[in-house]
Design goal:
It comes from Paenibacillus eucommiae. It holds the Pfam family DUF4037. This is DUF4037 domain-containing protein. With 347 residues, the protein is α+β, with helices and mostly antiparallel strands. It folds into 2 domains: 146 residues, no CATH class; 145 residues, Up-down Bundle (Four Helix Bundle (Hemerythrin (Met), subunit A)), CATH 1.20.120. It is built from 15 helices and 8 strands. The strands form 3 sheets. The chain has a 4-stranded mixed β-sheet with strand order 5-2-1-6, with helices on both faces. Helix 6 packs antiparallel against helix 10 and helix 7 packs parallel to helix 10. The longest helix is centred in the middle third of the chain and has 27 residues.
């Protein structure tokens, strides 16, 4: 049994009957947030740590004062095991929706989400909040929140796609130049960076949040376009020579350009790579495509940002895990760091 189904059964058979002791309380129950089971990727290996039948209970702010009473009831009445799995009652979280979001995003959900705020939210965290399952939602607050975070606003989506093409454009010729002078290792390293950018772009093209590295390739295989580009990307990763990488990437670029043209968000772009100036290798001119996409942004703030610095979201700025997890920073430093990141965009 996968975790998400186990936790649903745990809630229905154990937690919900116990919560009936607090009949005056309206609440929501779900399995969202961190954990492989939230994405449906848990296996037997997942059970060696931080894995137990569990739920999150979301109370109204006026009812959070009952959390200690609820905790005491759970500690005293929840059995030691369920369906053969040991139970750790501390893994059943009791909170409110705003407190939960602040713990995930270092953001006060009671305020409006400004366009630039989206750029400070890691896609993995957004995926964790919008995946999983809601088992009960008395007020509808949790479902409303998940709908509001379901995917990026249109202009943010355009900005992120433009930033992805910008990254590709900045390095596509460097991979070839390194190989041309005999640096196959350097060329391969740059090629791997481009492969990651291409995969991120594919997630954007299909309006899906990309997960963190452990499940990045696994989730990528679920995308419709993965069938078109997977074999070519693998050739790029395993090729021994830069010419092989070039040929495989040019096939990938053709598919990406075709997918882009089907979206109809800009004038049609060429689906064929072309020579980089007068040099003996071909590129896609990713920076040119980035400019076309950015020109379609309507939000004034994001459009101006695209003109000043087309750097993408926190995921495109850094792959440092500790930096991305701003919510884990202590003593409120996560909020300070997120606001400092906003100033990089707005300053």
């Amino acid at each position: 049994m996968q975790g998400i189904a186990l936790c649903r059964q745990f809630f229905v058979e154990i937690i919900e009957p116990l919560m009936a002791n607090f009949s005056s309380i309206t609440y929501s129950a779900a399995l969202i947030g961190p954990g492989s089971e939230v994405l449906g990727y848990d296996t037997e290996m997942s059970r060696d740590h931080d894995w137990s039948p569990r739920v999150q209970l979301f109370l109204n702010e006026t009812d959070i004062r009952f959390s200690e009473n609820i905790r005491a009831l759970l500690d005293g009445r929840v059995p030691q095991s369920f369906c053969g799995f040991p139970i750790d009652t501390s893994m059943t979280i009791i909170t409110t929706v705003p407190r939960f979001i602040e713990s995930c995003l270092a953001f006060d959900i009671n305020g409006a989400i400004e366009p630039v705020d989206w750029l400070t939210f890691p896609s993995q965290t957004l995926l964790e909040i919008t995946s999983g399952e809601v088992y009960r939602d008395d007020t509808g607050e949790l479902l409303k929140l998940r709908q509001s975070l379901a995917y990026y606003p249109h202009d943010i989506w355009l900005y992120l796609m433009a930033s992805s093409w910008q990254r590709i454009g900045q390095e596509e010729h460097l991979m070839l130049r390194a190989g041309f002078v005999g640096d196959e290792l350097g060329s391969a390293v740059i090629a791997s960076r481009i492969v990651r950018d291409v995969m991120n772009l594919c997630f954007l093209l299909e309006c899906q949040y990309a997960p963190y590295p452990k499940w990045f390739g696994t989730t990528f295989r679920t995308l419709k376009c993965s069938e078109l580009v997977m074999s070519h990307l693998w050739t790029v990763q395993t090729a021994a020579t830069w010419r092989e990488r070039e040929q495989a990437l040019n096939k990938v670029y053709t598919h990406l350009a075709s997918l882009h043209n089907r979206l109809g968000i800009t004038e049609k772009i060429s689906e064929e790579a072309s020579y980089f100036y007068n040099r003996p290798f071909k590129v896609m001119n990713g920076e040119g495509i980035a400019g076309l996409i950015a020109s379609e942004i309507k939000d004034t703030e994001i459009f101006q940002l695209s003109k000043k610095r087309l750097i993408g979201s926190i995921d495109q700025i850094t792959d440092n895990t500790d930096f991305r997890l701003l919510n884990k920073w202590k003593d409120g430093d996560g909020k300070l760091a997120r606001n400092a990141l906003k100033q990089i965009y707005l300053g």
